[in-house]
Amino acid sequence: MTQHHELTLLPPEVATYVEAHTLPASDLFERLREETQRDLNCPQMQVGPVEGAFLRLMVQLTGAKSVLEIGTYSGYSGLSMAMALPEDGRLVTCDIDPVATAVAKRYFAESGHDHKIDLRLGPALQTLKALAAEGATFDLVFLDADKANYVNYYEAVLPMMPIGGIVLADNTLWSGRVLNPQSASDHGIVNYNRHVLEDPRVEQVLLSIRDGVNLARKVAD
Q1: How many Cβ atoms sit within 10 Å of the Cβ of residue 209?
Q2: Does the predicted model carry a pTM greater than 0.85?
Q3: d(Cα 28, Cα 207) in Å, to the nearest integer?
Q4: Which residues pair with 118 in a beta bridge?
Q5: What is the tens place of the pLDDT at every residue in 48-63?
Q6: Beta carbons of 157 and 131 less than 8 angstroms apart
């Protein structure tokens, strides 16, 4: 098994053990990872195989039929979730980077799951406004874009979700910088974690998967 040394607060040997005891990624995902590492800027933004497996299982466990992803990048997380959707399921994924999403589109097509995927290029808050106007609803949302806007994304998506809907937010431990926030991104994550914790519309848990995943379940409008 390839050792990826993905972004995590775990000691490297423990992270390697975790990956070795998680359902391995297919060859398609391995090639996507290699191309991302080789050719794209900021390859650390790609989720790792453990988080990819977690996202796939979350879609399966929740029975989600409609998924929204904010932050496509090169498509690893989106493809992980799309593969778990039923044939009539739908993943809307949004990003502003035409270079990284061009890679994503190639792998979506090769996977045979691209008919489930609606990729929208443009600022996510504008895309969310358009989706709300369309009357779109989502069973599961994955936030993995600019950290300073996490609270804004959350507030935009929650009204589009049914009771029982799940919001997953990535990088919510932010390599430990949540303990001593300095930058706008640091404060964005700290604000998000506090905001969700204090929101009576959800119940949540902050998980130490990879660089932190905040899992919130909507319980009230």
Answers
A1: 21
A2: yes
A3: 27
A4: 92
A5: 899 999 999 999 999 9
A6: no
